[in-house]
Design brief:
This protein is of the alpha/beta class. It is 40% helix and 19% strand. It is built from nine helices and ten strands. Strands 2-7-1-8-9-10 form a six-stranded parallel β-sheet, with helices on both faces. Strands 3-6 form a two-stranded parallel sheet. Strands 4-5 form a two-stranded antiparallel sheet. It is globular. 45% of the residues are buried.
């Protein structure tokens, strides 16, 4: 599955870790992937991204860091700008090969995107290009705060317009003082033609919040129903 969000900083990593822990506790071999990341720290082992490290800790499959995070950039800026600054071209084939190795070693791969859905992935590419290449259903993380209705519904419209399948959405309570939060959730439930998979509460650790078997069935159904694209066979 591909986890995207209504914006940057709205909880994609929290949601991805919660999904991974749910799958792991259910006995599934689960691993996370952060194909492209900026804002990485220099370590003795090379650049490391905090989101990717959290995904590693939440999963239960060991893999090379380079497969989990194929493209790591130091500056905390939009990844396509960071890549351009370093003279790097983000290649979908490189990400695809890394994903295939992770998929062969696991039952489920949770792929975390960058920023919101329309954040560019490279000089020309968009995240939708990667999702279509990997043939992944999408899970949308909605940051529950004022303005989330517009952000969520525009994101859903963009995902569908890009020919990708929305398998479900997750609400993340990033504003503990949000007024009429439940009313906003009810509005989203009535207007998004995909199920609410769970709500992450404010200030809590990303503990398991999902029924993994039910989620896997929904993802499998979304994969069967999504449009097929001519391209790689995997």
């Amino acid at each position: 599955m591909y986890v995207t969000g209504t914006d940057t900083g709205i909880g994609k990593t929290r949601a991805s870790c919660a999904l991974l822990r749910s799958f792991a506790l259910a006995g599934k071999r689960a691993i996370g992937m952060k194909p492209v990341a900026s804002g990485c720290e220099v370590t003795a082992h090379g650049l490391r991204n905090d989101d990717a490290l959290q995904l590693i800790a939440a999963g239960n499959v060991t893999a090379a860091y380079a497969d989990i995070n194929p493209y790591a950039f130091a500056d905390p800026i939009a990844p396509h700008l960071a890549a351009a600054d370093e003279g790097v071209a983000i290649d979908l084939q490189t990400i695809f090969e890394a994903y295939r190795r992770l998929r062969q070693a696991s039952d489920v791969v949770v792929v975390e995107g960058v920023g919101g859905w329309c954040a560019p992935l490279g000089a020309q590419g968009m995240q939708a290009d990667l999702v279509r290449a990997l043939e992944l259903p999408v899970v949308l993380v909605v940051g529950l705060r004022l303005g989330c209705l517009n952000h969520a519904l525009l994101s859903v419209r963009a995902i569908e317009a890009d020919g990708c399948t929305l398998a479900g959405w997750i609400g993340n309570r990033i504003d503990a003082d949000m007024l009429r939060a439940e009313g906003n959730i009810d509005t989203l439930k009535s207007r998004i033609d995909a199920p609410l998979l769970g709500i992450l509460e404010h200030g809590t650790a990303p503990t398991p919040a999902f029924d993994p078997d039910c989620l896997l069935r929904r993802l499998a159904h979304a994969h069967r129903e999504r449009p097929r694209h001519v391209g790689r066979d995997h």
